[in-house]
Design brief:
Layout lengths: L1 H32 L2 H29 L12
Helix pairs in contact: 1-2
Keywords: Membrane, Transmembrane, Transmembrane helix
């Protein structure tokens, strides 16, 4: 179960960052060529999937925090 969650975490993290990067690059291209419609469309199309993937990898990271290998050991 832990391996599956680690892989899902990695996939969601990479996809979220990739979609955010694509959105920013597309908006920069739209700014450079003076196409405001391109900037708005890229934001409308990619914002929601990026946020959903970010929420997924955050939730998976929270769950992984309960596995013993991810818990911090306290030294007293």
């Amino acid at each position: 179960m832990q391996k599956l969650l680690e892989r899902l975490f990695t996939i969601c993290l990479i996809l979220s960052l990739l979609l955010a990067l694509i959105m920013v690059v597309t908006q920069i291209i739209g700014l450079l060529i003076g196409n405001g419609n391109l900037m708005i469309q890229s934001s409308e199309m990619l914002t929601q999937p990026t946020i959903i993937l970010a929420a997924l990898f955050s939730g998976i990271a929270f769950i992984l925090g309960y596995f013993p290998s991810y818990q911090e050991t306290r030294k007293e």
